[in-house]
User: Fold these one by one.
Assistant:
Number 1:
Amino acid sequence: MLQIANGKSTVVYFLLSGWLCLSKTSLAGDRQIIDFLLPGNLFDPGSGDEIMASTDVSALTDARMAVIRRDVWLQYLANHRSAQDLGSRLAAAGYARIAERLLRIGKGNAETRIAYAICELGLRANRHGLVTGQKFHLPLTQQVLGDFVGLSSVHVSRTIGRLVRRGVLSYGDHMDIVIHDVETLAELAEIDPHDLQAEITTLAGRSRIAAAATDGARRLTAR
Amino acid sequence: MLQIANGKSTVVYFLLSGWLCLSKTSLAGDRQIIDFLLPGNLFDPGSGDEIMASTDVSALTDARMAVIRRDVWLQYLANHRSAQDLGSRLAAAGYARIAERLLRIGKGNAETRIAYAICELGLRANRHGLVTGQKFHLPLTQQVLGDFVGLSSVHVSRTIGRLVRRGVLSYGDHMDIVIHDVETLAELAEIDPHDLQAEITTLAGRSRIAAAATDGARRLTAR
DNA sequence: CGAACGGTTGATTAGCCTCAACAACCGTGG
DNA sequence: CCACGGTTGTTGAGGCTAATCAACCGTTCG
């Protein structure tokens, strides 16, 4: 596990493959996952200085990252308006994700939180959409999912079990998920169907951007 | 109340005085406050497009904002490295705030949430510190505070009442708060004393930056 | 003056946590 | 080959926290 130092980091990371997670741990010892990082996401430890408590980064799977010198990255942003856009878009998307989840965690019950997490991660895991019959894999344990949505692993198990018994979805070991009824799932997640559709189209569009960014990141890689 | 549109906004706002709040409302009708905006904070509706559901902005007090044309702002950022730093710092600080609060809401009990909110808002309200004997005013109702930390207003009342009875703090009408015992308050908030001290110093340092930024924002104001 | 709002308090209920036991599945090593 | 510990998930029982419903008070405001 990599602890984010308080000092200035001289590099930024661009995730090429694998899943990472950003988490915080309370003084009481409880862990809260702030966000997951998926391929195409940028991670800038330097922007994390000045924050109150530190954040941990850990890998959920094997992962490959492009390490980019910070000055090179900033220079690149300054010179390329489109890249500057990309940077702020990635940041805004991260903020939007966490805000949306905050709403579910602050006001939603266990079903809402779990359903929303599955929708969010399912959408991000395969950048194409989220439809009935779709199968995907999330490299998470129920413990990790609980730390993500603020539930105990026991209650995660019960809640998912209820969803399975109701026929909304089924899942095999290690979070191999098959969605049987997207409408119900989205409804439980309190996602506006219109928003869901909008998110699907923007996500699909973003995979092109991500592909281009990945190429760029490779070129900028520090040696 | 201003609903953030999905289309591109052509301006950004720099808050000169007053308190605003950003909130989301679930389909079930529950409101979650994402963050408060205080003087010196920047608000960029344009970076909010592509997000799943929209965000509302409402004013808690009378407020004055500098309205800056978006292209002017971006140009300014591109030309001034220090301003670029400022922009990313403000964004990072916003992200850090919400992440830190997510930890409390996801894993903390009512006392922790309330104590943390009072610490966070107290620190931001007067940019100098947070010490025993300090008095400050938060322009919030208990209902708003509840929407902020994910509790019902009834439970907010009970929890604050308990803190008052224990002698940790006292407060008059409309959230005039006097802190009697910072150590205990910080402990309940699960704030590492070391982090608290660090936050106080950076906040103090930031007031200079904010003052400079406010001047800059006034000059950039669109007519 | 009545109406609306913010806050307090009581009683009851529901949801989630905790503890605990157990099953299934790994990889390891005898 | 099987025994073993470790991890993950499932299920049950009980307890506690916070939500809900409701009544009430004080203040403000039309």
Number 2:
Amino acid sequence: MSSLNEPRWLDQDEMAAWRGFVVASNLLNRRLERQLKEDSGLSHQQYEILVHLSAAPAGSLRMTELADKLVTSKSGLTYQVTQLERMGLVGRRSCPSDVRGVFAELTDQGRETLRQAAPGHVALVRELLIDVLTREQLAVLAEGLGEVSARLRLDDTP
Amino acid sequence: MSSLNEPRWLDQDEMAAWRGFVVASNLLNRRLERQLKEDSGLSHQQYEILVHLSAAPAGSLRMTELADKLVTSKSGLTYQVTQLERMGLVGRRSCPSDVRGVFAELTDQGRETLRQAAPGHVALVRELLIDVLTREQLAVLAEGLGEVSARLRLDDTP
DNA sequence: ACACCTTCGTTCGAATTTGAACAACAGGAG
DNA sequence: CTCCTGTTGTTCAAATTCGAACGAAGGTGT
């Protein structure tokens, strides 16, 4: 069993990594949120919905599948898809093989909005994160956080 | 000037790093949130407020200073400090040198709550992030994201 | 066919977050 | 001192988020 006495606190390096991760994450989200809202009237979450739909085979995904990709709650997704539906960027279609199923589907206007929003967003991601790091740092980040994500996905749905 | 035609999209490696960052961030927050709420009745934000106050000289910090450390809005902090005040974990004191100023101050009960919540939280951070990565990966993460954070802090308040 | 357990998406209420507007004050230039 | 500009923390309305509960189906074993 593990030690029941003193927990293993984070040393200086570990703490630096953890704080860096949290702070960078918060600052980045804040910045991207502002830029997207001002530039395209979209929240970061809404933008990501459009991206995932755009990347999907028929521009459409099942609600649950989309919620997984976005790492959000089902109810949260229902809300956001409704918002995007009102904006005319996304539509809902029922699934042929499963009456309960619902497809979120990118509309032409949704595609156009994404096409217009993407350059500015990507440019900022580049400026704030990608271009700040070296190729090696990026590789380590991708591999490390990829592994972290993979493990988190596993015991989240046992 | 920069190219006005095609934006520089993210290549495969860059995209992997960016997606890894976003996904890991979301999954981690989700997990930590759940654990803290179940284990100690605190949100991650509230926990972090206690941590920062605990680390401060007199267990107290100015509201604005605290908001900066937390990377949150002033109004958001006002709300959360009020919540913590109702729980008896934090108190407010006015600043001697500045009538407008307000100190958020950790109470004894707040210290005790933090002491009780910390081990479980740190253990989970360790399990989900720190211990998943090698020493080298942690170093790269700390340095890279530290730099990213530093730059973000700069042109955020020009 | 039947009961049983899981999955799907939505609805609901409560909690949280944000930006803008605000009032009160600080700090300096003149 | 007086005006001007920037800060400080709060309030407010609106938007978002989450988890729990729900109704409706799917899928399985008997």
